[in-house]
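Morning F.,

Quick status update on the modeling queue. The single chain you submitted on Monday has been processed. Sequence for confirmation:
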Amino acid sequence: MDAGNDRDATRGPRQGNAEWLRGARIVGVLGIFYRPEGRMGEPEAVAFLLDDGQSVLLTCASDGTLHVGAGTWPHLPDWCVPAAQWEYTALAALPQPPEGGWTVLSTDERRDERGEVHEAVIRCQGGRFVVVGGDTVGIRFTRGHRGAAATT
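Structure tokens below.
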């Protein structure tokens, strides 16, 4: 998918194209937390904010698989009920984006034996995000190809 085209993940459910963010510029990454649980746990979802005002949301299903779809930033997704008990929050373990954001070089989806996505890798200039499904969403950022990883 070329950078100038509509991005599959921001239009709705994808049809098997793992290159859903190539060419995008990520200007922020936020977790969606259920506030009564506090911020001590993992986020229920992770939103990648793009420089064009759109967002991509990665959530986990009850079976631990990872779903990628269009985000609703700055509004909470419909499943955040009651909305007053949910919030977008910065993920302290992740670095701040560089000036102008991270340019996505490629994405990859890792699947389980049933063919369900359980991990997404977003490779950017300067590092990569790894998002893992489970009971909640886990996310880490590793600078360059080797080096210390930031996780949450």
